[in-house]
Amino acid sequence: MSRPAKAQAHHPTGSRVHGAGVLREERHDPYRPIGHLEDGTTCPDCHAQVRRGAWRWVAAPDLPQVAHPEGRGRRCPACERIRVHDPAGLVTLEGDYVERHLPSLLSLVRHEAQRQTADHPMERLMTVEPIAGGGLQVSTTGLHLARALGHALERAHRGRLQTRYSPGELRVRIHWQRD
Hints:
This protein is an alpha+beta fold. It has helices spanning 77-84, 96-100, 102-119, 143-157; strands at 49-51, 54-56, 89-94, 125-130, 136-140, 160-165, 172-177.
């Protein structure tokens, strides 16, 4: 028995186009630099370093800081987001439950953020603020931390979790509610 042929898109010229129909952006994160940063490039704000192409926490200064034309290190994407206050993730906690269990919820948010940030320097808390009418608004530098916070809330405190990605921009909105 023969396998059905995969549907393939065609370019207007008639040739086949690999990956057609898949939305691909040229740059996903506007705060990521174009091109490759040298190993040892250090963020002047948080002291994360580029190692093997990725920002990492460096326990010991085993790589020299790389000088750049501006004469300083390069600010990492997370520190740049914090500087201009442009969060990638917004987590909203609402409902009567939030006011009754505020210390426990704050502890969970901070613990999960510390856990994620320890392994992923670009995933950090930006702000944790009360919102009008009760509840909390948490902003993060990364999508993954926002999603991790939402899932941690759902696991530990149940409630309803909604995740919304904004089309055309790199942002996620997480809404958690429990009455």
